């Protein structure tokens, strides 16, 4: 019995890789074996990039909160400690947004947190 090949799915698999490599430089977008390696590596970079993006944003929010709280002579760590002692649950993203875009509300928060 002759060997049967499934050309349809093989072609589909290669086309999928070549489509993903569109825009890559030189043979990385033309030759299947080279493109496959480039696409696999690009997926690795994309995965790790999504994790790094989260790290970068968290650090940006912390810097913004720190800049906002320094105007009142306090530090970021003191402020977050006071927030947790007062059992105020608010995340860093929202805190940074408030400190940048609504200074009056942020001032009230600071006064509320540091009031006895």
UniProtKB/TrEMBL annotation:
The gene is rpIT. GO terms for biological process: ribosomal large subunit assembly; translation. This is Large ribosomal subunit protein bL20. Belongs to the bacterial ribosomal protein bL20 family. GO terms for molecular function: rRNA binding; structural constituent of ribosome. It comes from Blattabacterium cuenoti BPAA. Keywords: Ribonucleoprotein, Ribosomal protein, RNA-binding, rRNA-binding. Transmembrane segments: none annotated. Binds directly to 23S ribosomal RNA and is necessary for the in vitro assembly process of the 50S ribosomal subunit. It is not involved in the protein synthesizing functions of that subunit. GO terms for cellular component: ribonucleoprotein complex; ribosome. The keyword RNA-binding applies. CDD domains: Ribosomal_L20. The lineage of its organism: Bacteria, Pseudomonadati, Bacteroidota, Flavobacteriia, Flavobacteriales. Pfam families: Ribosomal_L20.
């Amino acid at each position: 019995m002759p060997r049967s090949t499934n050309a349809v799915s093989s072609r589909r698999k290669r086309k999928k890789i070549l489509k993903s490599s569109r825009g890559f430089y030189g043979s990385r977008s033309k030759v299947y074996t080279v493109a496959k390696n480039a696409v696999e590596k690009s997926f690795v970079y994309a995965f790790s990039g999504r994790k790094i993006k989260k790290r970068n944003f968290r650090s940006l929010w912390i810097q913004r909160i720190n800049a906002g709280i320094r105007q009142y002579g306090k530090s970021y760590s003191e402020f977050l400690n006071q927030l947790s002692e007062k059992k105020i649950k608010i995340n860093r993203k929202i805190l940074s947004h408030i400190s940048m875009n609504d200074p009056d509300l942020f001032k009230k928060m600071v006064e509320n947190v540091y009031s006895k």
